Amino acid sequence: MKTKSIDPITVEVMGNALLSIAEEMSVTLVRTSYSTNIKERKDSSTAIFNAKGETIAQAAAIPVHLGSMLGICKEILAKYPLDQINPGDMFVANDPYNGGGTHLPDITIAQPVFKDGEIQAFVANIAHHSDVGGKVAGSSSGDCTSIFQEGLRIPPIKICSKGIINQDIIDMILLNCRTPKERLGDLWAQIASNRIGENRIEELINKYGKFMFKEGLEAFLKYAENKIRDGIKQIPNGVYEFTDYLDDDGIELTKKHLPIKVSVKVQEDHIILDFTGSVKQVKGGINVVKTALYATIYYALKAIIDSEIPSNAGYYRAIEVIAPEGTIVNATPPAAVGGRTDTCQRIVDVIYGALAKAVPEKVVAGCNSAVTTVLFSGTDPRNNNFFVYPESLGGGLGARSNKDGIDGVHVHVTNSSNLPIECLEMEYPIMIEKFEFIKDSGGAGKYRGGLGIRRDYKITVPMEFASHADRQKNAPWGLLGGKPGKTGKFVINPGTKEEKILQSGKVSEIELKPGDILSAQTPGSGGYGLPSEREEKRIKEDILLEKTTLHQAEKDY
Asked: Least crowded by CB within 10 Å, which of 34, 50, 127, 148?
């Protein structure tokens, strides 16, 4: 590989230009989309790939989305001969087993960028669509038992041919969705995002020339590889193991505490992660396909080893993964995968738990590590339209070696925001009765774990509720003597004679009537260090700010 013709400063400038393009694509997607899930919560991502489908730049968005975009470019190149790919073509896909996706609501659209008749790069974006069919509105219930129940499966097909939208493909997708107007608007936004990316990449190629552009991409990958290898060398050689557990699969509730196990082997500038011993794939929709596993691993190691590493395929070269087929971390069809992010979150925790034995100063304690997702659906009497309202809720981020954890945030592979109350109540026939941090939900320690949140939804019209969530039985663990955080739960009509605590976080088709309250309470996170070492002023501040009750403080400290 020749890189001598391009100097490091040009590589840095070009790398930042590529990241800037990905960010502009992201802004375009968010500002032109229709659904609250994208325009408000930003549950979307954008990225740029080289001509071989290797990641070059990803906008700072949702880490697990990289899994879907990792897969689609290579699936396109495997399915379509180069002479059948033309300027202006765009490809749409979402299928985890045949389209490079990770779950069906995440629809990816990718576009090749040409210069002089040759593919020079790909631009791609992914958006979490509020509904893509399936047995449950929202298409992400944790209690599905087959991917065929989860919605429309799309292999890589052309949604645009030579710049012209294929209306037949659009019509096919819309016919299989409960909210076609939203889907159409979001698909248009995705197409617009790619067109912006294509224009900017063409401008960059015109500025530097094809040869320099290609050399720059290769040098950028090599730079990331060198960075990760240097970082791995800072970790003591050895084998580090850890096991954590998912609550259940939402189907076989007698089978509890499903193990996720990892063995991390550090060898000089190379790292091997072996998930042998993890539970076999399960009936419920919390299985993970390999692309989602890879995206999760790449995030976790980047966060620990060197957060400044460019998000490209260069640093993947130092990482080896062993994941037996047919396990929950490398599922085979037709396993359901709609709630795969709960498992991805736990994969991060086990990697952190293992590496805490080697570099405890770089690792956070156990986090809420679940994507507590609520899905409400019904007919809005204000316009007689069917609606689907999805939202994933944050919780506690684990305490660190020198700081308390963070309260009420998304962690690890998710990074979407909450839906503001004003937007929620304007868009849907739901009112928010309570939105607050949960006292005492962060584990005690020298540094306290972050708090979970409580969000109470008041139902105003008949509707159905579905969900996928975890850490409602297995608490977030503490580190170096820190105490575990509190678990989460779903409660219908809390504090009344009709109170009902759902036995699993993975449910569907729960009927709610006007006046009901659905209380979503998310997990906290673990503490770090011995509680006896916490400064007295910090304890008093926690009590004053109502993060800890006096009773719990006396008990813990």
From this structure: 148
